[in-house]
Amino acid sequence: MAENLNNQTRQEQLQLLNSALDSGHLIPVRNLLEELHSADIAHLLESTPPRVRNVIWQLLDKEREGDVLQHLNDEIRQNFIENMQPQELANALADLDTDDVVDILGDLSNNVSNQVLRLLDEQNRALIEHALTYPEDTAGGLMNIDTIMIRPRVSVEVVLRYLRIRGSMPPNTDHLYVVNSRDVLIGSVPISSILTCDPETSITQIVDEEMFTIPVDMPDTEVAQIFERHDLVSAPVLDEEGRLLGRITIDDVVDVIREEADHSLLSMAGLDELEDTFGPVLVTARKRAIWLGINLLTVILAALVIGLFESTIGKVTLLAVLLPIVPSMGGIAGTQTLTLVIRGMSLGHISDGNQSYLLKKELAVSIINGVLWALVIASLVYAFAYYKGTDINHLHLAITIGGAMLFNLVTGVLSGASIPLILKKLNIDPAIAGGVVLTTVTDVAGFFALLGLATYFFG
């Protein structure tokens, strides 16, 4: 099967698909689906509205449903599974790797999951049930149990004979794992060594006992960092006693990295990383309403601060023009630091040992930028007030805006550095809550500093 259709881009595929569906001719759609890789079909499904999506799914060969399901966004996949009978789903999952089956079944209710498990063959059922006992976001939930294990005292010829009898190897198999009689990992042997060594060579002569191993309870984000740092293709997963349980391969790690990136990006805007881009209007509106409500509360809080200085604004109407500047600059400076710190935390760069240095460094940065931009805005406001010929003290107005700018830039940067650290200690995801807290702090501090100084000078 060709991996693409005449090297067409995804945009061209979407155009062809939409044109065929609009005309009511489904044969070109079926032909397109037959030529595409399962991952590309999943992309098409994610790029179309639900009505079109359902038509495409009905035209898809039953034999390919499982392959497509494993590539789909969780929310879209769940919608398709809800309309499938347990036997149909079991048939779709029959040829998938155990880790992919576990990913799919792990998102289902226990009732549906158990129904599907009962329909799988006994050997696969036992493996999958065991894998489902591990949390989804750990190495145990990520690993593939289908792993080739060999004994240390056999020869390369015996291993080759075993591989020929087996007929195929699990995807992304670059090493065979050497274990003892209790399945305790001894080391690994590269496939290249098996293919190039003398058949009479003993495995003990070529086994590599130095390797990266993954504890079964390690968080999947840490697994991804290990793969990234050491350029791994696969790594064995061990229990507390050193027994080999399975292996993690690079394709699963790529999924973790992508999910983590989506989570970090979308959470800062209050969006669910699993949200369907073309999902139903009411469902999407309900999900976003909560975040909008929280932001409304923060805006109301900032408005209350402004209300405290109503008389000052009445005396110095130019303040109404300057009000958005200070909170905005503080928010931008804080967001820069917040993003940097959250990224550093996700990569494991920030710990208790270097937090104080980070805060001192960010304080120095904020003071330098604060002084710079305070002087710039103070000069501009002074020149503007002088040009307009206002009857207020131009120097006092410049000091007011400059002082507020310096204060809020320092506040924003220090808040951006400290808020993620505090939220993490409270077991709150900084990517989700950090932006809201920072916006509230910079808005309130900015308005209070500007209007407070204005009240002092012009009271």
From TrEMBL:
Signal peptide start and end residues: none
Record has Magnesium as a keyword: yes
Residue spans crossing the bilayer: 289-309, 321-342, 363-385, 397-423, 435-458
InterPro entries from the UniProt entry: CBS_dom (IPR000644), CBS_dom_sf (IPR046342), Mg_transptr_MgtE_intracell_dom (IPR006668), MgtE_N_sf (IPR038076), MgtE_transporter (IPR006669), SLC41_membr_dom (IPR006667), SLC41_membr_dom_sf (IPR036739)
GO terms under cellular component: plasma membrane
Main location group: membrane
GO molecular function list: magnesium ion transmembrane transporter activity; metal ion binding
Membrane disposition: Multi-pass membrane protein
Compartments in which it is found: Cell membrane; Membrane
Alphabetic keyword roster: CBS domain, Cell membrane, Magnesium, Membrane, Metal-binding, Transmembrane, Transmembrane helix, Transport
Domain called CBS: residue spans: 207-265
Coiled coil spans: none
Keyword Signal attached: no
Pfam families: CBS, MgtE, MgtE_N
PANTHER family recorded: MAGNESIUM TRANSPORTER MGTE
Subunit structure: Homodimer.
Protein family according to the UniProt entry: Belongs to the SLC41A transporter family.
Annotated function: Acts as a magnesium transporter.
Annotated protein name in UniProt: Magnesium transporter MgtE
Source organism of the structure: Kangiella spongicola
